[in-house]
Give the backbone structure.
Amino acid sequence: SYRDNKAGGLTRRAKDYIKANYSNSITLEDVAREINISPQYLSKLFKEETGENFIDYLTGIRIRIAKNLLENGEMSIKEICYAIGYSDPNYFSRTFKKIVGATPTEFKDEVLKRSSQ
C-alpha cells in the first residue's frame, strides 16, 4: 500500500543518513529532523521496518566498520574510536566487547594471529 511504501522510503532515507553520518555524534532527533518527521514516529517506523531500534542500528554500523578497520591494521584503536563517532575510547571498548565478545585489542590480536599463520 501507499502508506507502507512511504514508511519504507522514510526508513531508507534514515538509514542512508545514518550511513553517511555515523562518524558524527548523531541522535534520533538529528535523523528525524533531516527527513522531516517526529523522533517518536521515526523510532516506531525504524523498529517496525528493521527490527532494531535506532541506537542499536547505529551501533551495529559503527562496530562493523570498527571491525573492518581493526582487520586492516593501519589505525590505532583510539583513532578508530574517534573515526566511527565515539568520543570515549573506554565506552567504545565496552560497547565493542558487548557486541563482538572480545575487546578491540583482543579482536585485533586475534586477526594478527590468524594472518601470521
Notes: The mean pLDDT is 91. The first helix runs from residue 2 to 21. The chain has seven helices and no strands. Helices lie at 2-21, 28-35, 39-50, 54-72, 77-83, 89-100, 104-115.
